[in-house]
């Protein structure tokens, strides 16, 4: 009998012990959610896309072409990184002797301009204070919120550099007389002149009739090679680690589009076109259109996580109403254009940080030089056909440039085909604020 009671006591003790162990295991259970829709986004991989801080402000906030007009005979070249670096160096870290703001109700004229001037043309509106401060490191006090898209470089009687920043509407300019010696700039310009070809000045409307406001483009573009750009795809998880805080990210996937979100942000990634779109939910009150803050802020944001990918990305457009900036790929100094925006980084600044961030996750693996060359029509032929096209208001043309069309490989969605684009030289026209490819007298 005693043995039976002893056995019962042992069994009861074992049952109690098992109950305690099972209860503890239930309380302490943590499921493996690696393969389910919810995943912990602890920032265990916060490495940048590439080495950070590799881009320079003076070659990212840069012109697209350089013109030298001597005795009204313009020559020019594309603004390669090397050329921009050479010409900007003599302007850096200099003071200002005087600043003058001039407004013209009618067409803008600058009668004091010399006969040998250099022009830097930009594709976007840029605050003069930002360019002087962030690019040239100059302490010049210029009018607040004055924007320009053309910088004319001249000299005065004291052999000092004089800058004329001309507004996009061609009715205002700010004249900055600097302490920089013109002799140093002349020496730098001589190293660039060897690359310059004949350019033609074009008048499209009443605001471009003076030699300081003409449009300039290469008269007869030389035969340009075509290229093939081969890409690899960057990790979407790395992008998430850079942009999201270390909280749980809920993932859902539908029709090739995956959504990631937490309390501070949401991102969509389309694995068919490799597009990534992030919104910062803590910055959704109002985007900033203050370009004095937005341009340095977006540049630093992208540069800090290696977002320029060690490639030639440049600021290409600024929207003063929405605050959106577009950085665009350049190739050998020429802008590239792509119908799917695979060559762009679009970013909008909020009050304290990025509000909206869109980009392709394609990174250039290699650029292959083709043996094929393409001849473009002469500028005069392009100008004449556009002027005689009844569907085009010639006065709305504000730029004519040579660029590269990025033609996507139609089979790039197939896993066995390496993602690539063919780059073909074309004429491009800025018309009514938008860019179009020129084709046989029309725009498309």
UniProtKB/TrEMBL annotation:
- From the UniProt record, list the coiled-coil ranges: none
Q: Which Pfam families match?
A: YycH (PF07435)
Regulatory protein YycH domain residues:
5-441
Keywords, alphabetical: Membrane, Transmembrane, Transmembrane helix
Question: Which segments cross the bilayer?
Answer: 7-27
Q: What InterPro entries does the annotation carry?
A: YycH, YycH/YycI_2
| Protein name, UniProt field | Regulatory protein YycH domain-containing protein
Q: What does UniProt list as this organism's lineage?
A: Bacteria, Bacillati, Bacillota, Bacilli, Bacillales
Organism the protein comes from: Staphylococcus simiae CCM 7213 = CCUG 51256
């Amino acid at each position: 009998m005693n043995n039976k009671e002893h056995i019962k006591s042992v069994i009861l003790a074992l049952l109690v012990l098992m109950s305690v162990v099972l209860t503890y295991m239930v309380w302490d259970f943590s499921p493996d959610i690696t393969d389910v829709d919810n995943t912990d986004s602890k920032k265990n991989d916060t490495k940048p896309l590439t080495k950070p801080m590799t881009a320079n402000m003076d070659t990212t906030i840069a012109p697209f072409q350089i013109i030298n007009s001597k005795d009204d005979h313009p020559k020019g070249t594309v603004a390669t990184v090397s050329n921009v670096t050479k010409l900007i160096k003599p302007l850096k870290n200099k003071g200002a002797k005087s600043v003058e703001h001039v407004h013209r109700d009618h067409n803008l004229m600058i009668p004091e301009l010399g006969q040998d001037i250099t022009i830097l043309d930009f594709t976007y509106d840029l605050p003069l204070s930002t360019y002087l401060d962030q690019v040239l490191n100059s302490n010049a006090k210029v009018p607040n919120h004055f924007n320009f898209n053309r910088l004319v470089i001249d000299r005065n009687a004291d052999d000092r550099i004089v800058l004329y920043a001309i507004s996009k509407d061609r009715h205002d300019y700010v004249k900055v007389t600097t302490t920089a010696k013109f002799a140093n700039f002349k020496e730098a310009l001589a190293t660039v002149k060897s690359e310059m070809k004949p350019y033609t000045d074009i008048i499209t409307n009443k605001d471009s009739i003076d030699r300081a406001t003409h449009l300039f483009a290469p008269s007869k573009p030389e035969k340009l090679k075509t290229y093939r750009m081969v890409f690899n795809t960057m990790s979407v998880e790395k992008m998430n680690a850079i942009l999201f805080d270390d909280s749980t990210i809920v993932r859902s996937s539908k029709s090739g589009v995956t959504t990631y979100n937490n309390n501070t942000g949401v991102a969509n990634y389309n694995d068919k076109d490799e597009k990534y779109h992030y919104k910062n939910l803590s910055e959704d009150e109002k985007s900033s259109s203050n370009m004095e803050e937005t341009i340095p802020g977006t540049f630093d944001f992208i540069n800090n996580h290696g977002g320029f990918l060690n490639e030639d990305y440049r600021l290409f457009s600024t929207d003063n109403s929405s605050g959106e900036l577009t950085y665009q790929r350049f190739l050998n100094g020429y802008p590239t254009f792509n119908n799917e925006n695979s060559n762009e980084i679009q970013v909008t600044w909020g009050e304290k940080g990025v509000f909206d961030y869109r980009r392709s996750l394609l990174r250039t693996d290699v650029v292959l030089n083709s043996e094929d060359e393409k001849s473009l029509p002469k500028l005069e032929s392009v100008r004449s056909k556009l002027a005689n096209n009844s569907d085009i208001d010639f006065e709305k043309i504000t730029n004519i440039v040579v660029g590269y069309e990025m033609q996507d490989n139609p089979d790039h969605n197939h896993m066995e085909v390496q993602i690539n684009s063919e780059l073909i030289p074309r004429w491009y026209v800025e018309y009514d604020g938008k860019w179009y490819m020129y084709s046989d007298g029309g725009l498309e």
